[in-house]
Amino acid sequence: MQHLPNDTFDVTLDQFGQIETVSGDPGFPAAKDVVGGNDTVTATVAELHTQLTIFGDDHTTLLGHSQGGNDTLIADISGGWNSALVVGDTQAMIDDAKGGNDTIVADAHGTIYTPVSAFGDVAGDMSGNAQGGNDDITGSIGWRGGSNLFAGDAGGSMIDTSHGGNDTLDVSVLTIDGGAAVSGDAIGALRGLAQGGNDNLTTTLDGDSPISGATLSGDSSTSLMDLTKGGDDVLTVKIDGQNADAISQMYGDAPDMTGHAQGGNDILNGGAGRDFMYGDARTYEPASPGSITGGMDTLNGGAGNDQMWGGPNNDLFVFNTGSGNDVINDFDQGNEAVGSTAAEHDLIDVQNYGFTDWTALSKLISDNTAGDAVIHLSANDSITLDGVHAASLHPTDFII
Questions:
Q1: Helix or strand run (H / E) with residue 383
Q2: Cα–Cα distance, 148 to 212 (Å, whole number)
Q3: pLDDT at residue 246, as a whole number
């Protein structure tokens, strides 16, 4: 194996309209057994209308058994009308290539009209048996930030038998009129036999802005297809502000699942805003009835009035005091979305409310005018079970 040296680069973009691409290992050899250096790149943007691109290794394809280095990449962006792309390793990975364990910081919190993207391993696709590194990505978005994309592994798709790393992403959208798509593995689809890693995603939103929001996806911002498998991910939304107007969408795996895809066992933690939470996906296109398998997910909406779907399989819905007026849209009905007739047993955890027993709780359950069961937890908190009658509920449906 050829090992490249460890390099340090400090770059400043201080000219109007400056375009700069920085690579930690410029001229990365087009060979099959190369290990990138453990490089440090620090780029400071101090002017307007600039374009910054950083690669931890180089703008190329890692192939064979090549490996990316364990790089530290920092983009400190100010001003406005700029753009930034930070990539932990390279443009693409194929064969048995592996990404490094990279640390990425993309800070654009004080900017205007500055879209930011950060990907842990590649800007494009991972294919073959490529494997992503275990990356740590921290990002922040400025006012009217446009399209901001963050992924633990690939800015494109993951196909064949590629495998995502176990990544940590922490993205702040503390702005009026801004948003971000945050994915544990890929922005594009997972296809073939690709597998997502076990990722931890956290997004902090400006609660004072109803047009500030984020979409978190445990594995793909697009779709899980074919025989792909989602990882066991943790998704968390936090609110920073006096109000709770921000909106988030959370997918334990991906917005769409098709074929024989399998979801991971995910944990979704909502914030004080309006959360739309899907344990697995929003839409399902099974190859045959029941061919898609959902994970055993845990959904906690936090405060705010939330909409929740556990998806196929047995899921747990957790409610703490101050949870707001929430709706579970598929209680014990998630398997129907994939054409499965198998019974499922979802659970509702209301331990935090201190009910003494089922008798005490059952007195607070009644049907609304639509015939849906409503659990009146307190004067300000309730759970509506869409399509479920109060008479069909039993003690075994709850953790009290």
A1: strand 382-385
A2: 12
A3: 75
Res 34 pLDDT > 90: yes
What angle is formed at CA 166 by the lines to CA 121 and CA 102, rounded to 5 degrees?
A: 40
The CA distances from residue 55 to 73, 133, 238, in Å, are: 8, 14, 30
Structure tokens belonging to residue 179 = 């948003």
What is the spatial distance between Cα 325 and Cα 244, in angstroms, rounded to a whole number? Answer: 14
How do residues 332-384 score in pLDDT, each as one tens digit?
A: 999 999 999 888 999 999 999 999 999 999 999 999 999 999 999 999 999 99
Q: What are the tens digits of pLDDT across the range 94-143?
A: 999 999 999 999 999 889 999 999 999 999 999 999 999 999 999 999 88
**Residues 302, 304, 307: CA angle, nearest 5 degrees:** 85
Distance of alpha carbon 235 from the chain centroid: 6
**Residues in CB range of 300: below 8 A, 6 or more apart:** 267, 268, 269, 270, 317, 318, 319, 320
Cα–Cα separations (whole angstroms), residue 206 to 9, 59, 172, 328, 336: 34, 35, 8, 25, 36
* Separation between Cα atoms, residue 150 and residue 168, nearest integer Å: 11
Separation between Cα atoms, residue 198 and residue 314, nearest integer Å: 20
Q: Per residue in 225-268, pLDDT tens?
A: 999 999 999 999 998 865 566 789 999 999 999 999 999 999 99
Distance CA 35, CA 56 (A): 12
Q: Is 322 left (phi over 0), alpha (psi -120 to 50) or beta?
A: left
pTM: 0.96
> Smallest Cα–Cα separation from 139: which of 190, 73, 80?
73
Report which DSSP code applies to 336.
G
Pairwise CA distance, residues 85 & 95, whole Å: 25
> Cα 338 vs. chain centroid, distance in angstroms?
23
Question: pLDDT tens, 12-29?
Answer: 999 999 999 999 999 887
Question: Which of 87, 113, 228, 130 shows the shortest CA–CA distance to 176?
Answer: 113
> Burial level of 94, CB count in 10 A (0-12/13-18/19+)?
buried
